[in-house]
Amino acid sequence: MSLDLQVFTKTLDDNLIPEINKQLNNFDMVVEVHPDFTFTTPTGFLPFKFKFNNPKFKVLEGKDLISGFELYKDDFSLAEKLEELNPKKGFMGKLLSKKTPEETFAPPEFEKRLANCTKEITFVWHVGDTFELRFAALTSAILTKLTDGVCCYPADDIWYDNDKIVENAYKEVKEYEDSLKEKDLKFHLFTKWE
């Protein structure tokens, strides 16, 4: 099973990577993003090496771990998305159909901000690794905040307010991780960068 988050931004460049990495270190762990990562050609799995400062579970103490998420980048145009949702009707279509309200891509307050966005970044995490949610949620929230972007969870059509997006993402991650028992953990030890 996999789930995804989407972030829409005006700009996206590699100057953001050190700041994202720095901010990830604010969440009770020491983190390194893969040294070859670049936003210019992101595709597939993006790994992070990390170690918890004060892990809840004894089995994680002092361990170098690896986790991450799948990352995909596409061009984005709100106008094109709206056109797909509301295709133009031909003469007969107009004549025979009832007037229906136009479909929206997002709630109006988000569409105003989406109008300036040119990139769509998708963060996909899988349940086969306990910590993929941590990295997908926190990285997407940090990227949203740094770029003044827009973030959504499309499966439930949830659009996130940027005011406390990073803090709220961490709260959700902690609630999930705290609900687990040690026997439920699925993690991978870091050996080397591949």
Automatic annotation (TrEMBL):
Superkingdom to which the source organism belongs: Bacteria
Protein name stated in the entry: Uncharacterized protein
Species for this entry: Mucilaginibacter psychrotolerans
